[in-house]
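Work Package 3 (structural annotation) set out to generate three-dimensional models for the target panel prioritized at the project kickoff. During this period the team completed the workflow that converts sequence records into discrete structure tokens, so that structures can be stored uniformly alongside our sequence database. As a representative example, we reproduce one entry of 371 residues exactly as it appears in the project archive.
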Amino acid sequence: MKAFPKPRASDANTASAVGPGAAGRPGPREGEGLYRVIFEHARDSILVLELAAGAPVIRDANPAALMLHGYSRGELIGKPVTVLGASLSRGRFGRQNGDSSIFEVRQKRRDGAPLITEVTARNIKVGKLTYGILIERDVTRRRRLEEEDRRLSGRIMLAREDEKKRLAASLHDAVGAMQVGMSSGLLLIEEELRTGQKRRAFARLEQSRKLLKKVTSAVKNACVESWPPALAVSGLDAVLRELLNAFARRSKIRVKAAIRLPRAGRASESPLFIVLYRLAQEALRNAEKHSGAKKLEFSLSAENGWLTLIVRDYGRGFDMARVKTRKSSLGLKIMAEEAAAAGGYLSIHSRPGEGTLIKAQLPLRPEHASL
């Protein structure tokens, strides 16, 4: 049977489409040839089903459909649609669009590979027969990426919760140590003063001051890790230089820095600056923890409405294809998400033995933000 049965002159559904009459309108045979060309060359899969009692039967399939499902024409024509490994009951209904229905179907290719298609379906009647026209678009990769994004979002949420727990634990331990130490010290000082041991009391006061200073410093460091208060006072330039100095002292990695910024400290830009600070903080943390480098280059510049951060270490590098599948890459994925949330981009380049380059671009003006 042909894909599109020849329309009858009395069929009102098809006469207006291919019948003669209007100037320049193709006649029946010319119209059928045109439709056949469109059918054969369409990029989307098109299936023609005869809707009879029982399972619909496949009456035609264009080349795109054969390629999508992995069958030859002879393996499909005349077969029930269930040969494709799916039924409408396995689909997810979407919406109505005029006389067409749009829904999603999960099925299998001939080789057993999973296949998810977005289907636009419409029934047409030719004489006493009813045909279903299914136009399919492969959305397998899109759905897989969406599922991966959902899993990644869950992991990122857990990682952020862990970060909050670590901060809370640091503050709790620091404050708890101060409370215990100061309470014990004050009790001893009180006892020594009562017994006239002033020299020992003064010595213990000095110990208590040192303890208070040490614990206060730990609390401040924990808070600064979360939100550097100097950002609003000194600006991003000064905060980043302080971050780099602390990194160099701690890691023993030599840093070459170039920071060129426009007038900083404007309140409207502070949310962007804290994102950039966190990106720099995470990039340096990764370099310290994983690179084994002796030298690191750090640059920040503003040009054409964009802030560009580049952190490059000359360490051991890594195989990006392998790291993408590991949980250890979660920090890089969090960086990418934070850059995207600010309307920007993050790119990472690395090879074993050739170091790692991390580049982030954030828009200074909303009109430059990515969609």
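The domain at 12-138 is CATH 3.30.450.20 (Beta-Lactamase).
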